[in-house]
TrEMBL record:
Keywords: Heme, Iron, Membrane, Metal-binding, Monooxygenase, Oxidoreductase, Transmembrane, Transmembrane helix
Organism expressing this protein natively: Sistotremastrum niveocremeum HHB9708
Membrane-spanning intervals of the chain: 12-37
Name of the protein: Cytochrome P450
MF terms (GO), sorted A to Z: heme binding; iron ion binding; monooxygenase activity; oxidoreductase activity, acting on paired donors, with incorporation or reduction of molecular oxygen
Record bears the keyword Heme: yes
Amino acids binding heme: 481
Amino acid sequence: MFSLSLLAISFTLLKVLCLLLLVPVLYLCVWLVHMLYIAPRFDTLNNMPGPLGGKLETHLNDMMNPNITSKSHGKFIEKYGFSWRFNGFGSFDLRLLTLDPRALAYILNSPAYQKPVQTRRLLSILLGKGIFAAEGDAHKRQRKVINPAFTAQSVRGVAPIFFDKAEKLCRKITAETTTGKEGQSFDMYHLLGRLAFDIIGAAGFGWEFHALDSESEEVYLAYRRMFGTMDAGPGPKLLLDLQFPWLPKIWADERNRIISRSNKTIHTWGAQVIEDRKQIMASEKGTSQDKSILSVLLKANMEESNNAQRLSDAELLDQLSTFLFGGSDSVSIAIVWCLHLLSLHPTVQSSLREELASFRSMDADDQTSFLDSCPLLEYVVKESLRLAPPVHSTIRMATKDDLIPVSRPVTMRDGTLATHIPIKKGSYIHIPMEAFNLCKDIWGSDADEFKPERWTDLPPAARSHLGLAGLMTFSFGPHSCPGFRFALLEIKVVVAVLITQFDFAPAETIKRFNAVVSRPAVVKDGQFDSNASLPLKVTSLTL
Ligand code: HEM
């Protein structure tokens, strides 16, 4: 009797368990059917021109691999014009790519277009909930406090640090050069990465990482290890983590563990830096000579009259990780590509050296003003930022059904001519910095060539777009790069200091690959080595 009732209870429990399991399985099936078959039928992008592809065929490589996009985008523009749709992870995931200036201005300035939730989750995993991941009012509030740290005056205040660290790099190269050996190969990617880290440490937070001396500082190592996890691309586990943010809590892989350990190190350091800086500022009572980004930021935060608008300590901490990222890799990569292009164009390199001839005999204050009056330096820096933008592209998601205005009407697949692109809520839009910078219709038929002199007489379309410093490289609108002046001055100083002391020549064939930013890699025997590096033959001009 007893065992029979036990059997009945067990049977009932089994039924409940099956039902409980059935609910998520059914939910998953409905979700899949909706995503793969129902939603795509109503997608307005179906009517847009663009490459066709099967249910699980992707065009992401053609759109996002910087090693081929400088060519593939040109072909798409020829075939489909300035705006087209393509397959993300399959034909169920149609996405829009546009380099139509009017459409870009509309999208990048409208609060209706935000970074997709997965992108924001990735940014939050790496950089916390700083300004990179913020949208709406939270973003406006953070931006308001951050902006004073990046005015032309604030940036000029930290320029001596740029000179000081760039000179230190030159001394390091000289010390490591074997006497009498001309054209010794140095991995400039690696050296410039360490230099930019030291610069953002000192100029950003009044902190010495000493990365140029030795790569043993724990915050530097934590940062490198964390971003090193992104070098091999996202991979299926990361894509799952971004879709289901609770997953790493129950299934953490090596990448999750490295990121979590690295963040702990960076946060412990950051909290200490903020605390120290606050105490110094309190004791100096406004007389501080410290011009670091952090000091200006803390001052702006304290001076904010509305308490609700002030950033909390946790938010300040997240900005530190943000600046560490924004201020190191993107700038060092920009200098890397500039040196690479100069190594491939020795005549431009010599002309630049001539322009800078009197530079080394000046004192530091005059050097900064002098660099402002060097047109070729300005053109070389802008031209390399145009040809090789560190941020290859970015992405936005429509948060409502909308009509995006275009300057060039689009011939839709049904033959109609559209002056507005209809877009459904939830659709992804790729904003291609590189494709815009290389577009022949905007920059002229020689758009894919390195020609600094083009900046003396730009075509009207290249002159009139909204990008910062005349480029799409820093994007534009409310989410554009606040650090662009800082970056431009740092690149100018480092290039000027290096070029006046060394000659740079190519050592290997170089390709580009995307790992958060577009990095260089060596091609040997036709094979692409996925470890980022830029070996250049360096010859001292002063020895
Ligand atoms: C050559 C160097 C740099 C390049 C090419 C670059 C490029 C960009 C781009 C394209 C964006 C917009 C991304 C998007 O909307 O998806 C951006 C945003 C940002 N950048 Fe930079 N950046 C550079 C240097 C810097 C520096 C030096 C800093 C600070 C020290 C910085 C801090 C930021 C921040 C905080 C944002 C987020 C702005 C927001 O969402 O409101 N960047 N950057």
